[in-house]
Structures are given as C-alpha cells and as structure tokens.
Known about the structure:
elongated, single chain, 0% strand, mainly alpha, 11 helices, Arc Repressor Mutant, subunit A, Tetracycline Repressor, domain 2
Amino acid sequence: MDNDSTDEQAQFRSGVASTALGLFVSQGYEATSVDEIAQAAGISRSKFFRQFRSKEDVIFADHETLLEQAEVLLAQEHTDPWEAVCQAAAIVFEHFAKQVETSRQRYQVVNAVPALRDRELVTVFRYERLFGQHLRDSVPGLPPLDAVRFAATVISTHNYLLRELMRNERELDVGELQAALDDVRRLYGVLAPADARPPAEEEVVVAVFPKSLPPAELARRLQQKLQGSNS
C-alpha cells in the first residue's frame, strides 16, 4: 500500500471516529449502535467492520496510526535516541492538539466508560514498550530498568499535559511539551542543563569511569562532576 492510500485510509478512519464520538457524547456509548455510526458516517455496516472490529476500536483508531508513525520514526537513524523518543511523543501530542475538540470528546467518553479506561491503559503500555525497546536497541549496555524509567517518565509527562488540554484548563502547544521533555532529559542526565556555560579554558575536570558504564549513567555522573567542580 502506497503512502497516499495509507493517508486516505487514516483520514477515513479518523472521520468515522469523529462521527462516532459525536454520537457517543450525545447519546451515550452503550446506547449508540454500530448501525447508527455507519448511517451517520454514510457507510455500510460491512464497510464499518472492514475498518474496525468493534465500537471500542473506533475510540482508539487514531492511536493505531500514531503507533505506526512512532515506530517508523524510531526505526530511522538517530544521533540521539533519547531525543528520538521525545520526538515520537511529540507526534502523538501534536496530533490530538490539532483536533482538540474531537480529542476532548474522546477524553470525555473514555473517562465515562470503565472498559474504555482499561483499553487506554493497554494503549499507554504499547507506547511505553515501543519507546523502551528503542532505547535498549540504540544504547548498548543500557540497563533495561533505565529504559523503562525514561520511557515511562516521557509518557507520564506527555499524558499530564495532554490531560490539561483535554480538560480545557488552558491552551497548550507542542512547544510546551518539548520544553517539558527537555527537562526530562536533563533529569536523566542525557541533556545538558539549559543554563550550562562552557568552562573557561583554564578549567579542567578529570573523571575516571569503568569502560562498561552505560552512556546514560556516564552522562549523569559527568554532570555531577561538572556541577561539583563549579561549587
């Protein structure tokens, strides 16, 4: 399937999802039938089931596309795998921020139905597993727990800001998310502090570490040494 066909299919699925969400909000999730969704979307019942296995799948249709996009991004060559994970998270945030009213409807429906909340947890785990696997593949020697922690922190930060947007508490854009994720990288020692200044030419810091030390831990310890030398 070429890219144009893929994009058209994604747009079609997103359009049906938007129609379904409008019905779920006005009529209730349980009270809305597949036949009603198909009729409102102008498609047949059989075409609905060619694209979605159930009403529940309609709610999470965008996530399937976004997971694929994130996987494609992470499969590319990256000089900084930590930043790549943050870029993948930004793709998800930007998608929902661009269609904020539909995203708010989805948030409203999911939070009203326990089964959908459970499905959302599974979806979050799929992102976490994808991000963590990318780090384990890209950072030789990285302890698996470090990959899990970083992936979980990125996702938690993303979800916190996205919930603020969904609750209509304030307007947010992807730039604010990126700034927050930069803070996450600093927290894990894989991005220099924003106010870090290059040392004067006469300043020298000497540090000795085991050769087998994972890069993430090496960066963290180097940061500690540099901060200690300036105190």
